[in-house]
Amino acid sequence: MAIKQITVFVENKQGAVVPITDTLANHNVNIRALSIAETNDFGILRLIVNDEALAEKTLTDEGYLIKVTEVVGVKIGDAPGKLTAALEVLSKSDINLEYLYAFMARTEKHAYVVLRVEDNAKAEAALEAAGFHLITDADICKL
Q: CB–CB of 103/113 below 8 Å?
């Protein structure tokens, strides 16, 4: 049930992300979640999109270096302590969290979080057993 994340490696310079988002927009790819981290020389742009296959092809055709990674998407209550509850499930299940970031969309009562863990299947099973709803590709298309 993991969802696909696209990682784009970009030069760390002013305006470098604009052609990426413009290219996706011109191909009708909608960004649902994103994160960007940087080093002195390059940036790492992580994206969850409504059409991963089209985004992957488009960015590759444009010459971007990309990587597709499976991550876990989880729906949590939008209230203090709810993220902690999800993270505690992973910790108690001996699952290492590598990084996380949130979706840009949210509902009145829920937030959506992307989790990169060392074992997606184990994390998904632990989260579902604890009552959390996992995000699917179909859910992303509805956002």
A: yes
| Top CATH class, 3-69 | alpha beta
Q: d(Cα 119, Cα 81) in Å, to the nearest integer? A: 24
CATH fold for domain 71-142: VC0802-like (3.30.2130)
Q: Rounded to whole angstroms, how far apart are CA atoms 31 and 33? A: 6
Say whether pLDDT at 80 is over 80: yes
* Digit-coded pLDDT (tens) for 11-69: 888 889 999 999 999 999 999 999 998 888 888 999 999 999 999 999 999 999 999 99
**Residue found under tokens 């632990």:** 126
d(C-alpha 88, C-alpha 99), whole Å: 14
Describe the chain by its helix, strand, coil percentages, rounded to 5. 30, 40, 30
| 105: amino acid identity, one letter | A
Question: Beta strand pairing status for 42-49 and 31-38?
Answer: antiparallel
Res 107: pLDDT: 64
The answer to whether 90 and 74 have CB atoms below 8 angstroms apart is: no
Whether 80 contacts 11, CB under 8 Å: no
